[in-house]
Amino acid sequence: MTLKQLEYFLEIARMSSISKAAQNLNISQPPLSMQLKSLEDELETYLFIRDNRNLQITPEGELLQERLNAIFALLKETKQEIKALSVNREMILRIGTIGSVNNRLLPTIISRFRREYQYVNFLVMEGTTDSVFANLLADKIDLGFVREPFNSSGFHSIYIQDPALLPDEKDYFVTIAHSHFYDDYFNGSNEKNLPLEALRNKPLVIHKRYRELLLNACRKKGFSPHIVCENGEIQSSLSWAQAGIGIAIAPYTSAVMNTDPTLIKKRLDSIFLSPRVCLIWKQSTKLSPETLALLAMI
């Protein structure tokens, strides 16, 4: 569960109506209903009894509401105490991140955070998932944004919902290339999905983290992929695709960094790993109040 889900629950409980809560929260009703169902599924209980007119909170929902009111009151008090301590104070929060997060998500998160914690400055170290892990282990950074798959042993992690995706939608792989790389398969059609078999004998540009995943998937389809470039940066894959060297394969949330209108994206079938972005930190690290406040905003 996330703080956002819990805030949504409290508003639904206050209004006894999903539609009224959605209006107050300035979001549409279907995503709000989906968030409530996700919370109930995780708690394995109903929080409301539904009828045609309104919602009646269950005993389990009343307990959750009571506890959350206390938690959010304590969180508000903590924020006020932190702000009182922040007069003439400065600190540096060290963050490691992959390029797609640094270019798209992190600035928005930090902008919101600094409205309340203006005394916090940042040291951002951009790199690969592997380098972020290395910097965490060496205590060079406090938090790290990485992309699955990774070894989570010894780390806490939280999933980052990318705004490029729909609520609860999982990331997926896409191909990015100039249109002529698709012509012999689609014959000019606007089909958005690309079967894996269509990559047979095509020049591919991939991130090294997904090499084994791609090899195994292609072998199951009866062919070996023609990899012309294997690199450690998604931006490099996009640049090679832009230069017309081949078809780049990347997670959708990384591919949206591409601003070249001549490049065509196709959703790649048959590769089912969900390459999620996660925020991680060492289990042995005691996080500062400011770092905890940043986590609460995500």
TrEMBL record:
Q: Which family does it belong to?
A: Belongs to the LysR transcriptional regulatory family.
In which domain of life is the source organism classified?
Bacteria
Has keyword DNA-binding? yes
Q: Which PROSITE patterns match?
A: HTH_LYSR (PS50931)
Which keywords describe this protein according to UniProt? DNA-binding, Transcription, Transcription regulation
Where in this chain does the record put each HTH lysR-type domain?
1-58
Q: What name has this protein been given in UniProt?
A: LysR family transcriptional regulator
